[in-house]
Amino acid sequence: MKSMNIKKAVLSLGVCATLMVGCSKGINEFGDINRNPNATTIPITSALLTNVLAGIGGNVWGNGINTTAGLYAQYMSETQYTDISRYATTTLNWDGFYAGALYDLQNIINTNSDPATAAAAGEFGANANQIAIARILKAYYFSVLTDAYGDIPYSQALKGNGTIPYDKQETIYPALIAELKAANAQFTTGAAVQGDIMYAGNTTKWKKFANSLIATLALRISKANPTLGKAEFAAAVAGGVIDANADNATITYPGGNYNNPVYAYYVITQRFDYAVSSTVADKLTALGDPRIDKFGNNPKGFPYGLTRADALAWQTTNPSFGFLFAYTATPQTMPLSLISAGQMFLARAEGAKLGWTTENATTVYNSGVTAEMNRWGITNAGAIATYLAQPSVALTGTAADNAKIGEQRWLAHYPDGLQGWSEWRRTGFPALTPAPGAGKAIPRRIPYGPNEPLYNPTNYAAAAALYNTNSQDAKMWWDK
Fold this sequence. Notes:
Number of domains: 2
Number of strands: 4
Largest sheet: 2 strands, antiparallel
Number of helices: 21
CATH class of the largest domain: Mainly Alpha
Structural class: mainly alpha
Strand order of the largest sheet: 1-3
CATH topology of the largest domain: Serine Threonine Protein Phosphatase 5, Tetratricopeptide repeat
């Protein structure tokens, strides 16, 4: 789902920042001839940071990763062109990540690290704090890429090299965790970082976000490397994760030229290809979950995975069904959530069930569901207590708790398709039924895009061979 206005602004900022670097090089090479004394010769790091944060919606949603993953997680149904939800092979290029947000973040790091530019960059906040924030966001972006594709260029990326090898996911995950820990340790009490439209330079909240991302990554490797997962999860929780909605990692859109990407997709581009799936709507209905009036503008879900002919026929007899959020009202300003308190409480419930912490699973589980209800504007304590008391929701200390926690985590990540799909791949919860009559299983990864065999053929071939010739059905390392 693309936010066209955000994309234009992001492109403008990105081009300007890139031109600043290029112009600096040209001036150094040709001396002071025709030099404009008023021109900026180094990147404006606050603008780069705003660019990255404002562009998260466009990059993650607009790139296609989150919409494709959201279809695989059955958060959404395709209403017209139903190929992806019927598992036609969908390849996506990652160029926009490496040449866009990741490049800008590396530029922030380089500019604040270089003695020749650090003082000028320091006008936009303490150098160490700018670097730490950029490192955290880089880790976030790389986690998105590896969870989508598996092995990716990581350790040799963003160094100005040409064709570079792919790193194994089993080495990327520990490296990301180590990077996040190092970034947290780098924060100082120096001047607040400017251009930070997520936390306004609040280092305490950035540390909580980093720890929450560590805990998320640690839990994701619960089957592939439980020893490392347990140690890092427990340490992250002890260090302080997001535990209040006021600290949620969210991008708040002011509207106007900067809109929530879901709103922009429906209202600005006037596309209506995605509806709330019947999978989600039926689950919410069965649980009597009040979020059904928040997840879509209509509680009626669209059947998942229909053929194009069947989808069009169904619409003829069912003209009213739910689109994501109440898109015709005011969600242009709706925040885009990366990690919330409720999601972290529910992750802690799973960690407690695994024996990774000494926390009480029921206590943190109830806190997680409550926080998620509150995040969606549901604050009636009695109604939430009644919801939690249902046999289909309440934890009982049995093996059935795993499915309940898994289902609530799936609901909590809506509509973040990559997170919902990743949790389903790892846990198998909820039990999703593949598209009817498709004759295929739900994909386990997004295949490498068509640019890789063209521009990085040798390294692509080696990586693709490990995934059954770049198959969408091949499992990645943590997917056990």
